[in-house]
User: What shape does this take?
Amino acid sequence: MGFFSFLTTDTNESILNVYSGRERFTVHILDNKGNVWTEHNYEGYGVFGGKDIYELIAEMNGKETRDAGIGLYYKKNSVNEILFPNIVRHMDKSTIWKNTRLIDCPQQGFFYSNSDEDEDEDDNDDHNDDENDDDN
Assistant: This one.
């Protein structure tokens, strides 16, 4: 199975995994009962602070297995029918759980483009071209 990830509920940021080579941040998982799991180094397989996200979805909805949680996550229905945990970057005493559907990270926490690096290289190429221009 490959990497997968989500966007944070509070800031809509990609949760990067440890293998991405990019700067990561700590996230916190909140459920509807006030439990919190904290993850400092997400490995990319759905476990945050020792808690499997799909098992948590199952538990929050009265089910028992990870497979049931996966089924609930991918079921097409309104957020009012299924309870979802929150994944937040910023956690303080005022942070409260809200039932919000989780959003898959399009880059799966790992597959980011190098466009920033490419743009830097293009800028350097432009400067080199200027040095070689003849005004004859």
User: Anything to note?
Assistant: Residues 27-132 form one domain.
